[in-house]
Each structure stands twice: as structure tokens, then as C-alpha cells.
Specification:
Elements (H helix, E strand, L loop, with lengths): L3 H8 L9 H24 L1
């Protein structure tokens, strides 16, 4: 097995991978939902 291509991908941080705009939007929405949940939890405690 030639592991060189995999090693190169890991070493370069998978820079060739592009994030889709939809994925970025979903990540932002999930982060905002998590922050709202944590904020609400703080008030309840």
C-alpha cells in the first residue's frame, strides 16, 4: 500500500477540500442554536 498520498493530504491539512456555502450556513445555525441553549440553561440554573 502506498501511503504517500494520504500522508501528503494529512500533512497539508486537506487544503484542497472546499466547504460548500450550505455547510457553512448550517454550521453557523447550529452554533447559534447551541449558544442560545447554553444561555437559556444558565438562566434556569
Amino acid at each position: 500500500m502506498n501511503a504517500l498520498p494520504l500522508r501528503n493530504s494529512i500533512a497539508h491539512g486537506f487544503k484542497i477540500t472546499q466547504l460548500m456555502q450550505n455547510s457553512v450556513s448550517e454550521l453557523i445555525e447550529l452554533t447559534e442554536q447551541l449558544l442560545r441553549t447554553l444561555h437559556t440553561g444558565d438562566e434556569a440554573g
